[in-house]
Amino acid sequence: MDSRKKFFICLFIFVFFAAMGTSGADDRTMIFLSKGQVVYVPVYSHIYIGDRERPFLLAVTLSIRNTDMNNPMVVKKVTYYNSQGKLLEEYINTPVALEKMSATRFIVHESDKAGGSGASFLVEWESEKPVSPPIIETVMIGAKTQQGISFTSRGQVVKEK
Fold first, then answer.
1. Which of 14, 18, 33, 113 is the most buried (most CB within 10 A)?
2. Averaged over 9-15, what is the pLDDT?
3. How many domains does the chain have?
4. d(Cα 124, Cα 42) in Å, to the nearest integer?
5. What is the residue-wise DSSP string for the chain?
6. Residue 78, domain member (yes or no)
7. What is the pLDDT of residue 16?
8. pLDDT of residue 21
9. pLDDT band at 50, cuts 50/70/90?
10. The predicted structure's pLDDT at residue 26
11. 115-152 in b/e burial notation, b at 16+ Cβ within 10 A?
12. What CATH number did the domain enclosing 58 receive?
């Protein structure tokens, strides 16, 4: 095979693979839209510290953020469960509308240790149109004397509507 043929074969292979790498969106660049979900969100109403596993009480903020730039969504249900999966509280009686790019929050007070270190929220939301799914997370924070701690947990979709 002459060098000219080799050159064109190599060029073809290069162009082919380069085109495959840029031919379309992959999972990292695609934006998935949804009309509703049930989202599980981890909660830590307390964590354990030291060798004696002393409880360190934490205040919890559940944050639900509508990330869609054009459409509203509705939070249908927010339920709070303890470490054993027992329902502790239903946070809303009527659906909560979230306008585009808006947010709402729900609080578990620091003194409320009923949830435990394995507590959770289930959040149900829906929209009339397919929308960018919300960011649903918890922020835990606590302080004692000179010691403070804070961290977040992100929700996990468990059901698509």
1. 113
2. 62
3. 1
4. 15
5. --HHHHHHHHHHHHHHHHHHHHSS--TTTPPP-EEEEEEEEEE-SEEEETTTTEEEE-EEEEEEE---SS--EEEEEEEEE-TTS-EEEE--SS-EEE-TT-EEEEEE-TT--SS-TTEEEEEEEEEEEEEPPPEEEEEEEEEETTEEEEEEEE-EEEEE-
6. yes
7. 59
8. 57
9. confident
10. 57
11. bbbebbbbbbbbbeeebbbbebbbebebeeeeeeeeee
12. 2.60.40
46 domain residue, yes or no: yes
Instruction: Give the sign of the dihedral formed by CA 107, CA 110, CA 115, CA 117.
Output: positive
Residue with tokens 């903020």: 61
Per residue in 72-121, pLDDT tens? 999 999 999 999 999 999 999 999 999 999 999 999 999 999 999 999 99
**Strand duo 73-81 + 96-98: pairing:** antiparallel
Domain of residue 72 covers 31-160
